[in-house]
Design brief:
Length: 181
């Protein structure tokens, strides 16, 4: 299973600032090689083979830009913000991500590179950028997308997925889009 040592260290903390979390995420991101990025991209393409063709291209583009290429953004992020974060919320997110990886590692098509990136980006978008894990514009079946209404991020599937142990919706900042209930 792919290492996630810097982030696992959060589980022993009583407090953590946004700056500290960003440093840990940057350390993890620096360990991601171009080969792993390529492996994760191939995994996304293969994983989408059973998705409707008209939705597949949009999905691959969205996930590639939202997850794969964003790893460079993490590496280059030099913001400073000493705000303390809710350490219990972060611990729950880290534990969820580690459990997801553990379960996925039992599957034949497990891709450690994808999961390394997935964990970093999920924590980065949620706790550093204060954005939803799926970027604005991410398409979902039925023609629905993640949107920003000027005040908050709205997701068309949040309520349907928030209790799904295989989804990151439980700690994503997006709210359920009331138009898609």
């Amino acid at each position: 299973m792919a290492e996630f040592n810097q982030i696992k260290e959060i589980l022993s903390r009583n407090k953590i600032g946004r700056d500290e979390l960003l440093v840990l995420l940057k350390i993890e991101a620096q360990l991601i090689s171009i080969q792993e990025i390529m492996q994760a991209s191939i995994f996304l393409i293969k994983d989408s083979v059973y998705v409707q063709e008209n939705y597949r291209r949009q999905m691959i583009e969205s996930y590639t830009s939202g997850f794969i290429t964003r790893i460079k953004e993490v590496k280059d992020d030099n913001r400073t913000d000493e705000m303390l974060l809710d350490v219990e919320e972060i611990k729950e997110a880290v534990e969820l991500l580690l459990n997801q990886e553990n379960e996925a590692s039992k599957m034949d098509d497990f891709n450690p590179a994808f999961f390394r990136i997935y964990k970093i980006i999920s924590l980065y978008t949620t706790f550093i950028l204060n954005e939803p894990i799926h970027p604005v514009g991410t398409p979902f079946p039925g023609g629905f997308k993640v949107i920003f209404d000027g005040k908050k991020y709205l997701c068309p599937v949040k309520d349907k997925q928030k209790d799904n142990p295989g989804a990151v919706c439980g700690f994503c900042i997006a709210e359920q889009d009331p138009e898609t209930i």
